[in-house]
Amino acid sequence: MMGLGVDFDRKFQETIAEVSIADAIAFAYKYLREPYVSLVGQQTTVENVLKDFSTIIR
After folding, report:
1. What would the pLDDT profile of 6-15 be if each residue is shown by its tens digit?
2. Can you give the C-alpha Rg of the chain in angstroms?
3. What confidence tens digit (pLDDT) does each residue in 26-35 have?
4. What is the number of alpha carbons within 13 Å of residue 1 lying toward its C-beta?
5. CB 50 within 8 A of CB 57
6. CA distance 7 to 5
7. 3-state secondary structure of 52
8. Which residue in 21, 26, 30, 35 is a FRET match for 44, CA 20 to 30 A apart?
9. What are phi and psi of 29, to 5 degrees?
10. For residue 9, what are the CA distances in angstroms to 1, 6, 13?
11. How far is CA 8 from the centre of its chain?
12. Where are the domains of the chain?
């Protein structure tokens, strides 16, 4: 359907299984330095969530 091939699910699982804990930590240190959160939803719902977290948002 998306042009990924009929064996995409199997290959994806195999590739993920090959990722070591050290690989994941190295990735996190390299790419996840600043925390970000994206909220999607109705405006009033998002505003209420932001109110709850206003003490930790810079």
Report:
1. 899 999 999 9
2. 18
3. 999 999 888 7
4. 1
5. yes
6. 6
7. helix
8. 35
9. -65, -35
10. 13, 8, 6
11. 20
12. 8-52
Per-residue buried b or exposed e for 33-42, using 16+ beta carbons within 10 Å of the residue's own CB: eeeeeeeeee
Cα–Cα distances (Å) from 5 to 9, 14, 16, 29, 43, in that order, read 9, 15, 17, 32, 38
Please tell me which residue, 5 or 57, carries the higher pLDDT value. Answer: 5
Which residues have a Cβ under 8 Å from the Cβ of 5 and sit 6 or more positions away? 11
Measured CA to CA, the distance from residue 17 to residue 31 in angstroms comes to: 20
Question: Are the C-beta atoms of 49 and 39 separated by less than 8 Å?
Answer: yes
